[in-house]
């Protein structure tokens, strides 16, 4: 391959899910991270392995586990998928009944092993391990202040900021953790472990999900309920905004470090990120996404021959749209499930064809048909355009695009990897301009009211159904301006 073609790669790292940029061929929002914790089970490592496997969709870059046998830590981290990082021998060496685990997709922090979590430290009170999902908006400012005071950072992860705040405190761990959480701003689900304690905390707005379950006498914590189901644990409840749970020899202590603020669970969890078999705020996500499709059909019906969803995240919504309209649902597109990781770097010539690595149109299904294509969101618009053209190339006579979220116009500060606002197609174009750019026959988006109704928030007293929709309406639930040092995406 020529030097010129070598320069024209689809991603900048060794594999495409190492990070995003304007040349990412799969122009979708990237998952944040996933956390999983166990307290009081002799098979903590094995349970965590299966739990992390269930959360793999939340991060494919790295995976890690730290287990305590009440005397010392045993931990292992690696780059890659859960099944690549851990084997039977590795898991066998991770003995103990307390554990925290993590799967990571970096956006702010660099993609390297030192940033893989859980982060493990030794400080004045013993061993300390931390894992988080989310982003600390004011991490750059706090890091700079800590460095000026003499702290030396080993990673570029903002999770380490919390470790330093705890280590510099002269208070007991729980009080030090409370003080640390009060200083940080953002969306996060934190797990902190010592040799004998497990602490779990949610940000004051509940932006990032975290649930608690029970398996016998053991306590289980996970970013999504699907991980609890995987190991046979029973869901107890969601960890509440601003809550701090402490598990030690005295059992479960329910505390909080701050009063809850405006409830604002990330709306993209409902729309895209979480697995359809997970529940959030009492709502099953498959059912919620079906309702999004149904409401979408009520808001913007179009006569067509078939409905198809962009796999996998939009299939539920496509079924809902089809059921509401009576238009048949068909598998008009098939996803290649083996594109999760690859070290191949195609040339510029292949970039425009790159979407076919992941999706293929079923010609015999769409040929000669008027197609309604359901998708969950549009980021830069490049992938949507390629899919529309792919359906046309397969013989579709019309392609009508229906997006089951409002237009995505603003970057996320709380853990979702989003481009600069100027790269978001909805922030620079009208819907009609976007329709032309996508080469679609029509284009509509789900309304704000429709989204709230679909997730079951229309009867709720919570503002905006208890969701953060800043990516759509620029109404952020926290302060975001910290002297130009605010941090986008996911810094964990």
Automatic annotation (TrEMBL):
Annotated residues for binding of [4Fe-4S] cluster: 266, 412, 468, 471
Enzyme class: transferase
Matches recorded under SUPFAM superfamilies: N-terminal nucleophile aminohydrolases (Ntn hydrolases), PRTase-like
Catalytic activity: 5-phospho-beta-D-ribosylamine + L-glutamate + diphosphate = 5-phospho-alpha-D-ribose 1-diphosphate + L-glutamine + H2O
Molecular function via GO: 4 iron, 4 sulfur cluster binding; amidophosphoribosyltransferase activity; magnesium ion binding
Catalytic residue positions: 33
A biological-process GO annotation: purine nucleobase biosynthetic process
Binding residue positions for Mg(2+): 313, 375-376
Start and end residues of each Glutamine amidotransferase type-2 domain: 33-250
EC annotation from Swiss-Prot or TrEMBL: 2.4.2.14
Required cofactor names: Mg(2+); [4Fe-4S] cluster
UniProt remark on cofactor binding: Binds 1 Mg(2+) ion per subunit. Binds 1 [4Fe-4S] cluster per subunit.
Pathway connected to this protein: Purine metabolism; IMP biosynthesis via de novo pathway; N(1)-(5-phospho-D-ribosyl)glycinamide from 5-phospho-alpha-D-ribose 1-diphosphate: step 1/2
Pfam families: GATase_7
PROSITE patterns per UniProt: GATASE_TYPE_2
Similarity annotation: In the C-terminal section; belongs to the purine/pyrimidine phosphoribosyltransferase family.
Function: Catalyzes the formation of phosphoribosylamine from phosphoribosylpyrophosphate (PRPP) and glutamine.
Database matches in NCBIfam families: purF
Protein name: Amidophosphoribosyltransferase
Organism: Paenibacillus nuruki
Gene name for this UniProt entry: purF
């Amino acid at each position: 391959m020529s030097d010129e073609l070598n320069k024209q790669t689809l991603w900048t790292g060794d594999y495409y899910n190492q990070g995003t940029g304007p040349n990412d061929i799969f122009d979708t929002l990237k998952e944040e991270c996933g956390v999983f914790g166990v307290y009081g089970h002799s098979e903590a490592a094995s349970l965590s392995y299966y739990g992390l496997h269930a959360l793999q969709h939340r991060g494919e870059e790295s995976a890690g586990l730290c287990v305590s046998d009440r005397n010392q830590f045993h931990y292992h981290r690696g780059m890659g998928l859960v099944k690549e990082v851990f084997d039977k021998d590795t898991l066998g060496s991770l003995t103990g009944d307390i554990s925290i685990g993590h799967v990571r997709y970096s956006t702010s922090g660099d993609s390297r092993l030192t940033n893989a979590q859980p982060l493990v430290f030794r400080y004045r009170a013993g061993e300390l391990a931390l894992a988080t999902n989310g982003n600390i908006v004011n991490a750059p400012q706090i890091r700079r202040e800590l460095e000026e005071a003499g702290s030396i950072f080993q990673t570029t992860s903002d999770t380490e900021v919390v470790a330093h705040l705890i280590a510099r405190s002269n208070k007991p761990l729980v009080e030090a953790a409370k003080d640390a959480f009060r200083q940080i701003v953002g969306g996060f689900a934190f797990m902190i472990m010592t040799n004998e304690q497990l602490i779990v905390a949610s940000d004051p707005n509940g932006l990032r999900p975290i649930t608690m379950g029970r398996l016998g006498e053991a306590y289980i914590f996970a970013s999504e309920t699907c991980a609890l189901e995987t190991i046979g644990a029973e869901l107890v409840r969601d960890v509440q905004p601003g809550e701090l749970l402490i598990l030690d020899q005295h059992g479960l202590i329910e505390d909080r470090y701050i009063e809850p603020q405006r409830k604002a669970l990330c709306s993209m969890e409902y729309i895209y990120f979480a697995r359809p078999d997970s529940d959030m705020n009492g709502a099953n996500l498959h059912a919620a996404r079906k309702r999004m499709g149904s409401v979408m059909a009520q808001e913007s019906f179009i006569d067509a021959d078939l409905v198809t969803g962009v796999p996998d995240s939009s299939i539920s919504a496509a079924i809902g749209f089809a059921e509401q309209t009576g238009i048949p649902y068909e598998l008009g597109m098939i996803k290649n499930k083996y594109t999760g990781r690859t070290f191949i770097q195609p040339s510029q010539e292949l970039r425009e064809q790159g979407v076919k690595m992941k999706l293929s149109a079923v010609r015999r299904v769409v040929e000669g048909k008027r197609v309604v294509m359901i998708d969950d969101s549009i980021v830069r618009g490049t992938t949507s355009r390629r899919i529309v053209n792919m359906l046309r190339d397969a013989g579709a006579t019309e392609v009508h695009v229906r997006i089951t979220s409002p237009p995505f116009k603003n970057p996320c500060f709380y853990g979702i990897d989003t481009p600069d606002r100027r790269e978001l197609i909805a922030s620079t174009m009208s819907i009609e301009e976007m329709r032309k750019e996508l080469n679609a026959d029509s284009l509509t988006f789900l309304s704000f009211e429709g989204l709230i109704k679909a997730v079951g928030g229309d009867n709720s007293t919570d503002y905006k159904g208890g969701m953060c929709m800043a990516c759509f309406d620029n109404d952020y639930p926290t302060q975001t301006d910290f002297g130009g040092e605010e941090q986008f995406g996911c810094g964990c």
